[in-house]
C-alpha cells in the first residue's frame, strides 16, 4: 500500500545528473519529434473548432499555443497543445504498451514554460520523469487495461503530466502524492473514440488535468494517499489485471524512454508494417494499381482489433484502417499526412484497392510484422513477410530522419524558424528559458 508514495519520493528526489546520457539523448529526440507534430497538427480542423469554441472562455492570455499565433491561459493551452500534437496520430509510441507518452507531458510543460520562466535543464528533467511515470504505469497494467477499452495515452498520460508539472513546481513528497492522487481520479479516455477528433482530446485533457492536479496539490488541496494501489484506486477500479511492482522496480536504472519509437507514417502504429511492406512490394515489382486483382494481409490479432475500419466516412477514420494502409502502400508508394486526408479518402484508385483487400488474423504474426500476398490480374502472385517495420524498435528512425520529419510538418512557420527550432530541441538543456524555443514555433506575423 505504498506505491503512490514511493513513486512520489522518486520524482522528488531524482536528479538530472543521475540520469544516463542515453536517456537524456532519447528525451531530446522525443521533444524534437513532438514539437514537429505540434506544428503539423496546428491548423487541423479539430484545433480550429476547439479554439473557436473554448477561446471565449479562456483566462488571462499568458501562454502560447505551439504552432499558432493565439495566446490563452496555460490550462487551455495545455489542452490545445495536446490536441495539436496528437490529432494527426504522428506522435511517438511505446510498443510495449501502445501509449503516446510525449503528447500529454510536453503539452503541459510547454504551456507552463510559456507562462513561466523555465530553464531547459529543468524542462528536460521534468519531461523525462513525466514520460517515465507513464511508461511504468502503462507497463504495470498492459495488456488487460488496454484490452478493456481504455485509451492509455489519456487515462495514464494524466499521471505523467501531473508528475512533470509537479516537478517544476518543486512539490514536496506529500504534495506530489496528492498530485498523483488527483491524476488518478481524473483518469479517462476510451478507445471507442479512435477515428474521431475526441481521440486527440485525450492527451489534451490529460495534460490539462495533470497540470491542474499539480497546481492544486501545491496549494495543499488534498487527495487520497493511495491513488494508484488503493482497493478503490486506479489499478483496482480500471484494470482487470496489473502488477504494481513494475511501477516502482529499478528506479533510476530502467527507463521507458529507451523503448520509445517515432512514427514514419501518421496513423496507427500497428498498420505501419502493412504500409512498409506494400511500398516495398510496389517498388520491387513495379506494381501499378490497375494491375492488382486482390490483396491478402496476414496480421496480428491486435491489428484487426484496432484498425479494422473499412467503411470510411471521415479522414481521421482512415488512420485506423488496415485497408487504407495497404491501398496507400500499393497505390501511392507513400503515406504522408495528405494521404490520410479527404482527397485520399475520395480517391477512386484507393477506394478500389481498399475494397480489394482482405485482412486475416494470424496468431503467428507479430504486432510489428505482416505477411502480404498480392494477386495480379495477369494471374501472377507476389508476396513478402515483413518481420520488423521501419520506425519501430528494430529499425528506428535516425536523428536525420527525425529532423526531416520535423521539416515536413513545419509549413506553418518559416524555414529559418524550423531550423532554429530543431537546433533548440537538440540543445534544450542549454537554453536559459524554454520560451525561446516556443518563440521559434509561432507563425511569422502573429
Describe this structure in words.
There is one protein chain. The protein is α+β, with helices and mostly antiparallel strands and 446 residues long. The protein folds into two domains: 3-262 and 396-440, 2-methylcitrate dehydratase PrpD, CATH 1.10.4100.10; 269-386, 2-methylcitrate dehydratase PrpD (60s Ribosomal Protein L30, Chain: A), CATH 3.30.1330. The radius of gyration is 21 Å and the shape is globular. It is built from 22 helices and six strands.
Number of strands: 6
CATH topology of the largest domain: 2-methylcitrate dehydratase PrpD
| CATH H-tier superfamily of the largest domain | 2-methylcitrate dehydratase PrpD
Taking pLDDT < 50 over at least 5 consecutive residues as the criterion, the unreliable ranges are none
Beta-strand residue percentage: 5-15%
- Tell me which CATH architecture of the largest domain applies here: Orthogonal Bundle
Strand neighbour order, sheet with most strands: 4-3-5-6
How many alpha or pi helices?
Answer: 22
Estimate percent helicity.
40-55%
Q: How many domains make up the coordinates?
A: 2
Name of the level-1 CATH class of the largest domain: Mainly Alpha
What is the overall shape? Answer: globular
Main sheet: strands, sense, barrel:
4 strands, mixed
Order of helices and strands: HHHEEHHHHHHHHHHHEHHHHHEEEHHH
First and last CA, distance: 51 Å
Tell me the radius of gyration: 21 Å
Q: Would you tell me the overall average pLDDT?
A: 97
Structural class: alpha+beta
Amino acid at each position: 500500500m505504498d506505491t503512490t508514495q514511493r513513486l512520489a519520493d522518486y520524482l522528488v528526489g531524482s536528479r538530472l545528473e543521475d540520469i544516463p546520457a542515453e536517456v537524456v539523448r532519447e528525451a531530446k529526440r522525443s521533444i524534437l519529434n513532438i514539437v514537429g507534430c505540434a506544428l503539423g497538427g496546428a491548423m487541423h480542423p479539430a484545433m480550429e473548432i476547439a479554439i473557436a469554441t473554448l477561446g471565449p472562455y479562456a483566462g488571462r492570455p499568458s501562454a502560447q499555443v505551439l504552432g499558432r499565433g493565439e495566446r490563452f491561459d496555460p490550462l487551455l493551452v495545455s489542452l490545445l497543445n495536446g490536441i495539436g500534437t496528437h490529432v494527426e496520430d504522428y506522435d511517438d509510441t511505446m510498443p510495449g504498451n501502445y501509449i503516446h507518452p510525449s503528447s500529454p507531458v510536453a503539452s503541459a510543460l510547454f504551456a507552463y514554460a510559456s507562462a513561466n520562466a523555465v530553464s531547459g535543464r529543468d524542462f528536460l528533467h521534468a519531461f523525462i520523469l513525466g514520460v517515465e511515470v507513464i511508461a511504468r504505469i502503462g507497463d504495470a497494467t498492459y495488456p488487460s487495461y488496454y484490452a478493456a477499452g481504455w485509451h492509455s495515452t489519456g487515462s495514464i498520460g494524466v499521471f505523467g503530466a501531473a508528475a512533470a508539472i509537479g516537478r517544476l513546481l518543486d512539490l514536496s513528497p506529500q504534495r506530489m502524492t496528492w498530485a498523483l492522487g488527483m491524476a488518478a481520479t481524473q483518469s479517462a479516455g476510451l478507445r471507442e473514440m479512435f477515428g474521431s477528433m475526441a481521440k486527440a482530446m485525450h492527451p489534451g485533457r490529460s495534460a490539462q488535468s495533470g497540470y491542474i492536479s499539480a497546481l492544486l496539490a501545491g496549494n495543499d488541496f488534498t487527495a487520497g494517499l493511495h491513488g494508484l494501489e488503493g482497493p478503490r484506486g486506479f489499478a483496482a477500479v480500471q484494470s482487470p489485471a496489473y502488477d504494481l511492482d513494475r511501477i516502482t522496480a529499478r528506479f533510476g536504472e530502467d527507463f521507458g524512454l529507451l523503448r520509445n519509437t517515432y512514427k514514419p507514417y501518421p496513423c496507427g502504429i500497428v498498420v505501419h508494417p502493412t504500409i512498409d511492406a506494400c511500398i516495398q512490394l510496389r517498388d520491387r515489382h513495379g506494381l501499378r494499381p490497375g494491375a492488382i486483382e486482390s490483396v491478402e494481409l496476414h496480421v496480428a490479432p491486435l491489428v484487426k482489433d484496432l484498425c479494422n475500419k473499412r467503411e470510411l466516412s471521415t479522414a481521421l477514420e482512415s488512420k485506423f484502417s488496415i485497408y487504407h494502409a495497404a491501398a496507400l502502400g500499393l497505390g501511392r508508394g507513400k503515406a504522408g499526412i495528405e494521404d490520410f486526408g479527404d482527397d485520399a479518402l475520395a480517391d477512386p484508385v484507393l477506394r478500389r484497392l481498399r475494397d480489394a483487400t482482405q485482412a486475416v488474423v494470424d496468431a503467428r504474426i507479430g504486432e510489428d510484422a505482416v505477411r502480404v500476398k498480392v494477386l495480379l490480374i495477369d494471374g501472377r502472385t507476389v508476396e513478402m513477410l515483413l518481420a520488423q517495420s521501419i520506425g519501430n524498435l528494430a529499425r528506428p528512425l535516425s536523428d536525420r530522419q527525425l529532423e526531416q520529419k520535423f521539416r515536413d510538418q513545419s509549413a506553418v512557420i518559416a524555414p529559418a524558424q524550423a531550423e532554429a527550432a530543431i537546433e533548440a530541441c537538440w540543445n534544450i538543456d542549454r537554453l536559459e528559458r524554454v520560451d525561446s524555443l516556443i518563440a521559434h514555433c509561432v507563425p511569422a506575423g502573429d
